[in-house]
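Subgroup meeting minutes
Present: P.N., E.W., G.H.
Scribe: E.W.

1. P.N. recapped why we're keeping a running log of single-chain structure predictions: easier to compare across weeks, and new members can see raw inputs and outputs side by side.
2. G.H. added today's entry (134 aa).
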Amino acid sequence: MSEKSVKITYWAATGLVALVYLGGATFYITAHDMVAGMYEGLLKYPTYIIWPLAILKIVAAVVILWRPSTFLSDFAYAAMFWHLLLAASAHIAAGDPGWPPAIIAWAALIISFLTQNRVREKKSPYGDLLNSAA
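Output recorded in log:
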């Protein structure tokens, strides 16, 4: 894969993940009552986690885009990985058809993580999984 195509792939995947997270946070904030109803009724989750999740979604999106440090970026990638995996499984278990965005964002997150070191100046110590596996 050429450097230009890796760069396009990385930024498209990273942008998609950030867009999903910022969009989700915006939805949590602007439609709080609707989200609370979904959390209580459909997913059987407590509603007190909505505000912390909204804030953390914004923070995670900013961290993977801005990348103030590789430690924070790797931490955000790990948190997002598990959040998206658990979000998809929660929607599937509840019989809710809202799981595809989580799976698509999860795949984009993996692509972003695996291509980050070929694009970013600050290299992650864990971002070269593709090169070390070959």
